């Protein structure tokens, strides 16, 4: 049996370090914000090459608070990929704005920058690229368009911890970069957690206030904020796991390299990595018109796979009101029919990857 992802193994590998963290937080007397959260924010900002990091409760809140901090609200439009996890769209809707989908580049799965300008209207306030599957989006043309039209750039980096775009880590290319530390992400907590990173002091400051009831000084509320604080126990766990992130991303890279070379002769469409991208392989996604048969065969061979994602946001009941019927975003719709995520993670062995390859080839 090869599981799609083993969530226990990373914590077993770090057992003694994590046991110490629990004791440290227990004995600290700080259970809301405090020194562990401050330290994680410093360490993660440094890791990302960003000036500021603000910890929040989860990745969706990171996106919502980023948009609120930039003043995006009712009547505004935000450009989003048509093929993303629904959280990207939900954040836009949560602030009362409208998600405006743009199709992905079929080679990289990330938003196609050549299609963005046609989606810009007088109501557009921001572009929200997603570094999907751990592959950085092509940020330079997006940033150039944003500058030309006076738009903000909010990056959804929930799948891209450690990825580099043109040699520089994701973390401060756009106005705000939003992170999720959901347990299955490349940097995952043992529960919900999230953060934003930015070089904009004003935005970091506003999110710090918004996440804590709109308050800077206790019982003084300057705006109507929310409770979306990063939990100190999760921050302390993330500090331990951050030290292993690069090594664990390298292990993912080694698995991806096996798939890239061993599956090259098959009928599968494999992920393509542009010269400017250093992905971190959050997911290894192949495409085939016979996806369901392949998934079924792998299941029978004891190999866990998943589909990211089976229904694009515009075809979800949640977005029926937008009236975007079947065929309105054909690239996203075809991907939803054809993509399959093979097992990958820091605790998948190279031998297991070879078994996945053999099982895939047996179907060819
Ligand atoms: C995981 C994820 C999110 C949301 O993160 P949560 O911490 O679960 O709220 C947002 N966007 C993308 C692309 C994600 O993969």
Automatic annotation (TrEMBL):
GO molecular function annotation: pyridoxal phosphate binding; transaminase activity
GO BP terms: polysaccharide biosynthetic process
CDD domains linked to this entry: AHBA_syn
Catalytic-site annotation from UniProt: 185
Post-translational modification N6-(pyridoxal phosphate)lysine, affected residues: 185
InterPro entries, per database record: DegT/StrS_aminotransferase (IPR000653), PyrdxlP-dep_Trfase (IPR015424), PyrdxlP-dep_Trfase_major (IPR015421), PyrdxlP-dep_Trfase_small (IPR015422)
Family annotation (Gene3D superfamilies): Aspartate Aminotransferase, domain 1, Type I PLP-dependent aspartate aminotransferase-like (Major domain)
Presence of the UniProt keyword Manganese in the record: no
Record Pfam families: DegT_DnrJ_EryC1 (PF01041)
Keywords: Pyridoxal phosphate
Family: Belongs to the DegT/DnrJ/EryC1 family.
Matches recorded under PANTHER family: 3-OXO-GLUCOSE-6-PHOSPHATE:GLUTAMATE AMINOTRANSFERASE, TRANSAMINASE
Name under which the protein is recorded: dTDP-4-amino-4,6-dideoxygalactose transaminase
Organism (species): Fontimonas thermophila
């Amino acid at each position: 049996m090869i599981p799609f992802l083993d969530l226990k193994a990373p914590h077993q590998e770090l057992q003694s370090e994590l046991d110490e963290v629990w004791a440290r937080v227990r004995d600290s007397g700080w259970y809301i914000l405090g020194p562990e959260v401050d330290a994680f924010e410093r360490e993660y900002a440094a890791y990302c090459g960003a000036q500021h990091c603000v910890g929040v409760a989860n990745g969706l809140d990171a996106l919502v608070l980023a948009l609120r901090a930039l003043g995006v609200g009712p009547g505004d439009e935000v450009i989003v990929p048509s093929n993303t996890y629904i959280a990207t769209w939900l954040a836009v809707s949560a602030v009362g704005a409208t998600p405006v989908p743009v199709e992905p580049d079929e080679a990289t799965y990330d938003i196609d920058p050549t299609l963005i300008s046609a989606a810009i209207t007088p109501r557009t306030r921001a572009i929200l690229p997603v570094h999907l599957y751990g592959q950085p989006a092509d940020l330079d043309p997006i940033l150039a368009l944003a500058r030309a039209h006076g738009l903000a750039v909010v990056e959804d980096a929930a799948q891209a911890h450690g990825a580099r775009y043109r040699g520089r880590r994701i973390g401060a290319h756009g106005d705000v970069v939003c992170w999720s530390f959901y347990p299955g992400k490349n940097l995952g907590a043992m529960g919900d957690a999230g953060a934003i990173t930015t070089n904009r002091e004003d935005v970091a400051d506003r999110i710090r206030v918004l996440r804590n009831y709109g308050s800077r000084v206790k019982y003084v509320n300057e705006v109507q904020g929310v409770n979306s604080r990063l939990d100190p126990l999760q921050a302390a766990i993330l500090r331990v796991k951050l030290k292993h992130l690069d090594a664990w991303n390298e292990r993912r890279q080694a698995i991806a390299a096996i798939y890239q070379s061993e599956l090259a002769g098959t009928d599968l469409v494999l992920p393509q990595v542009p010269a400017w991208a250093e992905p971190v392989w959050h997911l290894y996604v192949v495409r085939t018109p016979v996806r369901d048969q392949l998934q079924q065969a792998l299941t029978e061979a004891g190999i866990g796979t998943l589909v990211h994602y089976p229904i694009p946001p515009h075809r979800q009941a949640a977005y029926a009101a937008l009236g975007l019927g079947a065929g309105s975003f054909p690239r996203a719709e075809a991907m939803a029919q054809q993509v399959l995520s093979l097992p990958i993670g820091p605790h998948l062995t190279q031998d297991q990857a070879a078994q996945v390859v053999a099982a895939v080839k047996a179907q060819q």
